[in-house]
Amino acid sequence: MKYHQIDRNLYIKNRKKFMAEMKPKSVAVFNSNDIYPISADSTMPFQQHRDILYLTGADQEESILLLCPDAPYEHLREILFLRETNEHIAIWEGEKLTKERATEVSGIKNIMWVQDFEKTLFEVMTYCDTMYINTNEHYRSSVQTQTREDRFIKWWKEKYPAHQVAKSNPILQRLRSVKESQELDLMQNACNITEKGFRRLLGFVKPGVMEYEIEAELIHEFVRNRSKGFAYTPIIASGNNANVLHYIENNQQCKDGDLILLDVAAEYANYSSDLSRTIPVNGRYTKRQREVYDAVLRVKNEATKMLVPGTLWKQYHIEVGKVMTSELLGLGLIDKADVQNEDPAWPAYKKYFMHGTSHHLGLDTHDYGLLVEAMKANMVFTVEPGIYIPAEGFGIRLEDNVVIQESGEPFNLMRNIPIEAEEIETLMNQ
């Protein structure tokens, strides 16, 4: 891995929190992701399942975690199963975790090879009444591929039909949404790497540059700072491309007088950052561009103040909508009649700001978090309002990542990344 080793006490603490929520006489199993094929002998780069990563730090394929806190023997209460390594694997694929190294990484004392999993699970099941299965219940989930976890759940239900079933996901949704201090440090590092990439761009962008050249500058800066690369597929949208919310072609020329909407950010140690900035190709905003830019920034600043413990996600978005409505009225994009006659299910402001303002951030870019429950301290959210005007040929989105505090306004992990229009212009014209 490119990233520095993470203190194993984080994973010890995460497992302890999870096991405290388990029912008596229960067992939980977590599987790694598969390595997905492309064609012939090609595969996609491996990405570890975030749940087993959160609980063990084992960033490796063919790994399984078993937790059974009430097992009568201590060695059965936490077990990490790994693919057995050997000299041949080391030569062809690189070093894999040894048992000793896995204990260093995870803090788990009992490390076994995956070929011993089924017989070990059988013994554990004789002591347990309930199995926690790990299903994907994220509100944005849309999975069409059978995962390693799916295959395990199908096999287990056939093998042990007399046992009760419980779900790991609701526990993890709550635990993972509230970050430990070590996690916040990792996310701050991801944001710091993103800052370096963005500052690099401010001296690089000029009329005639291609969107993919900007992408290349970013990946260079990210990787040289120990990131695997982008936390998500980068959006580098010049001109009217910014009005396609998930524009990812990045193949157009950036023209004099246009804006570039950048939704680009680095990961670090599998933790995401998530940045949006909108900059002028020629280094100067026009009067109209600046009016809209400042309006978006005001909405972002007002929305940020609302992210405090006790806030409900749905009500928060209603309040942000009111702020955006006021700004759109000031810009002349909507009028009072539009507001008076609006459909409550799709308010007038949605014509120019059609997406949400915030989402959880962490090991996933759209991270775990139960949206029906109130916000808590140490949750991390994006704040990303935008105004999109196809008729005028540009769209503007601004986004920072903030940590909710026990009291007062949230802490901005991107506080050092330029966002004020004057500072961006100054840096682009040095």
Automatic annotation (TrEMBL):
Identify the species of origin: Flavobacterium suzhouense
Q: Which Gene3D superfamilies match?
A: Creatinase/methionine aminopeptidase superfamily (3.90.230.10), Creatinase/prolidase N-terminal domain (3.40.350.10)
Tell me its EC number(s), please: 3.4.11.9
The molecule here is called Xaa-Pro aminopeptidase
Instruction: List, alphabetically, the InterPro entries matched.
Output: Aminopep_P_N, Creatin/AminoP/Spt16_N, Creatinase/aminopeptidase-like, Pept_M24, X-Pro_dipept-like
At the top level, the lineage of the source is Bacteria
A Pfam family that this protein carries is Peptidase_M24
Q: Which SMART domains match?
A: AMP_N
Listed PANTHER family? XAA-PRO AMINOPEPTIDASE 3
Keywords annotated in UniProt: Aminopeptidase, Hydrolase, Manganese, Metal-binding, Protease
Q: Which SUPFAM superfamilies match?
A: Creatinase/aminopeptidase (SSF55920), Creatinase/prolidase N-terminal domain (SSF53092)
Where are its TM segments located?
A: none
* Molecular-function annotations in GO: aminopeptidase activity
Catalysed transformations (reactions): Release of any N-terminal amino acid, including proline, that is linked to proline, even from a dipeptide or tripeptide
The record's comment on protein family reads: Belongs to the peptidase M24B family.
Residues of the signal peptide: none
> Which cofactor(s) does the record list?
Mn(2+)
Q: Tell me where in this chain the Aminopeptidase P N-terminal domain is found.
A: 6-142
